[in-house]
C-alpha cells in the first residue's frame, strides 16, 4: 500500500455530503466552521475538513477566517478547507452571506443531501455544487493535516472526472428518487474526489516545496516513508534507514527532517502511536498487545511514549473513546 493511502486509512477518513446546491447568479452561500456543521449533524469526529465540489458551471470560494485570495472553481474542481474554516461560495469574489444554521440538520424522514435552490427564476449563469465534510483523526499523529495549506484548490484530471462525475450524478439521482444507499454512495464519492484532488495537489507542488506531502514524491524521503509505513514494527535505527535509502546518516537526517518537519526516529515513534491508538480504539487489543503489535518491546516504554505525545496514558485514551 502506498503511504498516502496508508495514512488515510489509519486516520479513519470518512466523508459525507450535506447539500446539493443549484444556484443562478448572483448568489452566495456561507458555511460556518466545519466543526459546527459536524456538531449540528450529530457527527462525533476528532477533526473535520470542509469541502465543495463544482459539478456544473463556475463560482468563487473564499475562507472567511483567514485572509487570502479567492479561488475560482470550474466544473470538476474541488476546494478543501483542511482546518475546517468558515467559507463562502459565490458568483463573484468578495461576496458575503450569513450562515442559516436552521439548514444544518440531519432529517429523520429522509436522507442526505439536502437540496438547495437559489435564484431559480433568474435568467443567469447556473452553478451547481455539492458541499460536505471529511472527518478524520488529528491525534496522535496525522502528517497529512500538518502539511496542507489553509485552502487546497484541487483540479481533477479530465480522465478522473469522467468516472467521478458519473458516480456523483448517480448518487445525486438516487437521492432525488429516495433510493436506498444514496448517503453511502455520496460519502464514498466524496472520499474518492478528495483523494484525487490530493493527488493533483501533490503533483502540482513546486520542486522546492518542503513538507510531508512533497516528501512522498522525493526519491530518498519517499523511500524512507514507505519503509516506515510498511515495516513499522521492525527495530529501525537511523543508520539502518539511511543505509536502506543509500544516504549517509547526517545527510539522510537533514533531508528527511526538511520534508517531514520531524526527525526520522521521531516520525517512526509518532506513526507507531497512531497505529496503536487505532488498535486501542477498535478494542481489538489490550494496551500491552497494541504496544507489541507496533514494535515496542516493553509496555512501560510504550506508555511513556504515548503519554509524552498524546498527553494521557493509553489506558485513559481507550476509556475516553469507549461509549458510555
CATH class value of the largest domain? Mainly Beta
- The CATH architecture name of the largest domain reads Sandwich
Helix content: 40-55%
Alpha-beta content class: alpha+beta
pLDDT < 50 runs, ≥5 residues: none
CATH homologous superfamily title of the largest domain: Jelly Rolls
Q: How much β-strand is present in the residues? A: 15-25%
Averaged pLDDT: 85
Please state the CA-atom Rg, rounded to the nearest Å: 22 Å
Distance between the termini: 35 Å
Could you say which overall geometry the principal axes of the C-alpha atoms support? globular
Task: Count structural domains.
Answer: 2
By DSSP, the count of extended strands is 10
- CATH fold field value of the largest domain: Jelly Rolls
- What is the strand arrangement across the widest sheet? 8-1-9-3-6-10
Can you write the helix and strand succession as a string?
A: HEEHEEEEEEEHEHHHHHHHHHH
Describe the 3D structure.
With 324 residues, the chain is an alpha+beta fold. It folds into two domains: 3-203, Jelly Rolls; 218-321, Arc Repressor Mutant, subunit A, CATH 1.10.10.60. The protein has helices spanning 3-10, 34-40, 143-147, 158-176, 182-203, 212-215, 219-230, 238-244, 249-260, 264-282, 287-293, 299-310, 314-321; strands at 14-24, 28-31, 47-56, 58-63, 71-74, 77-81, 87-90, 114-118, 126-136, 152-155. Strands 8-1-9-3-6-10 form a six-stranded mixed beta sheet. The chain has a four-stranded antiparallel beta sheet with strand order 2-7-4-5, with no helix packed on it. α4 packs antiparallel against α5, α8 packs across α9 and α10 (264-282) crosses α11 (287-293). The longest helix has 22 residues, at 182-203. The mean pLDDT is 85.
Amino acid at each position: 500500500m502506498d503511504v498516502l493511502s496508508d495514512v488515510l486509512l489509519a486516520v479513519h477518513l470518512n466523508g459525507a455530503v450535506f447539500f446539493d446546491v443549484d444556484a443562478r447568479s448572483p448568489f452566495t452561500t456561507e458555511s460556518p466552521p466545519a466543526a459546527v456543521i459536524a456538531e449540528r449533524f450529530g457527527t462525533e469526529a476528532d477533526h473535520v475538513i470542509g469541502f465543495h465540489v463544482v459539478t456544473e458551471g463556475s463560482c468563487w470560494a473564499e475562507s472567511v477566517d483567514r485572509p487570502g485570495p479567492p479561488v475560482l472553481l470550474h466544473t470538476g474542481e474541488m476546494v478543501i478547507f483542511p482546518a475546517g474554516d468558515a467559507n463562502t461560495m459565490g458568483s463573484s469574489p468578495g461576496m458575503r452571506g450569513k450562515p442559516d444554521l436552521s439548514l444544518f440538520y440531519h432529517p429523520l424522514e429522509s436522507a442526505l443531501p439536502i437540496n438547495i435552490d437559489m435564484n431559480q427564476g433568474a435568467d443567469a449563469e447556473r452553478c451547481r455544487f455539492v458541499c460536505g465534510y471529511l472527518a478524520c483523526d488529528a491525534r496522535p499523529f496525522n502528517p497529512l493535516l500538518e502539511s496542507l495549506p489553509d485552502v487546497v484548490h484541487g483540479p481533477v484530471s479530465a480522465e478522473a472526472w469522467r468516472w467521478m462525475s458519473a458516480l456523483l450524478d448517480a448518487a445525486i439521482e438516487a437521492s432525488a428518487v429516495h433510493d436506498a444507499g444514496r448517503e453511502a454512495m455520496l460519502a464514498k464519492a466524496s472520499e474518492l474526489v478528495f483523494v484525487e484532488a490530493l493527488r493533483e495537489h501533490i503533483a502540482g507542488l513546486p520542486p522546492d516545496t518542503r513538507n510531508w506531502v512533497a516528501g512522498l514524491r522525493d526519491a530518498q524521503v519517499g523511500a524512507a516513508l514507505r519503509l516506515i509505513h510498511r515495516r513499522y514494527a521492525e527495530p529501525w535505527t537511523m543508520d539502518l534507514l539511511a543505509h536502506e535509502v543509500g544516504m549517509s546518516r547526517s545527510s539522510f537526517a537533514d533531508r528527511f527532517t526538511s520534508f517531514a518537519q520531524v526527525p526520522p526516529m521521531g516520525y517512526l515513534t509518532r506513526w507507531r502511536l497512531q497505529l496503536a491508538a487505532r488498535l486501542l480504539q477498535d478494542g481489538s487489543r489490550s494496551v500491552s498487545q497494541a504496544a507489541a503489535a507496533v514494535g515496542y518491546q516493553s509496555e512501560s516504554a510504550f506508555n511513556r511514549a504515548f503519554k509524552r505525545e498524546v498527553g494521557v496514558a493509553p489506558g485513559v485514551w481507550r476509556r475516553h473513546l469507549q461509549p458510555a
